[in-house]
Amino acid sequence: xxxxxxxxxxxxxxxxxxxxxxxxxxxxxxxxxxxxxxxxxxxxxxxxxxxxxxxxxxxxxxxxxxxxxxxxxxxxxxxxxxxxxxxxxxxxxxxxxxxxxxxxxxxxxxxxxxxxxxxxxxxxxxxxxxxxxxxxxxxxxxxxxxxxxxxxxxxxxxxxxxxxxxxxxxxxxxxxxxxxxxxxxxxxxxxxxxxxxxxxxxxxxxxxxxxxxxxxxxxxxxxxxxxxxxxxxxxxxxxxxxxxxxxxxxxxxxxxxxxxxxxxxxxxxxxxxxxxxxxxxxxxxxxxxxxxxxxxxxxxxxxxxxxxxxxxxxx
Length: 315
What we know:
The protein is of the alpha/beta class.
């Protein structure tokens, strides 16, 4: 069984990381968009009110103000729902922030299907694609609360724009403080030589659970947590392909343009092997319980195991 240490939403890891940074670095400045408590930046607001602004429901202004703060020498973090953090101000992100390579960090909360009852309008399933295509932008999708906190802290000391994706609902905590985290460096969580499961975000835990299903069938799967989607760890991907000869990718995002596409881009140029992708298959989400939606859209451990069986036939 996968060892876990309770459950808590990754958005709280984002908030914890900001507070830790705020205590150590007076240049950290946080901006919100009227979703302060729900994206867990309220503790920073209470502790450092002189370094916090609530811009209101005005995301284009939010990112424009963050750009100005970066020019003035601050390290601004903005946070709101991922749909609105990435979609509404995309032109400001592209032209004002990334074109000038400004030191702005963007938190996209409530990502994926597990936003649940809020429905399709609030379920960010496209932002990996629209963020990773912009020059200078780094993209991170952490797997649990502890890794999200580490991602926030690491991003503050990484020059240039960063997009951090995280969620609303409680999910298992299975990494530890001692687990390595480095932007652009993947972590091997389980060894195996029959197939490699490359996962990001919430799907890392589901991938680990899938290995237990596969072991009962005599299949040994390697699991790699690729938390940084851009810059992606090409060496880890190529190494897994050479060792295992078949890849399954898993993400809580649209199948087009996301994590699986990023992995495939590396493989097709360097070491092509059969690939199966577990992702949302070109559909909008619906309102419902978060875990029920994960099952409905085929993002559970059983679906990853099925994809493994399918890709092994092509190996």
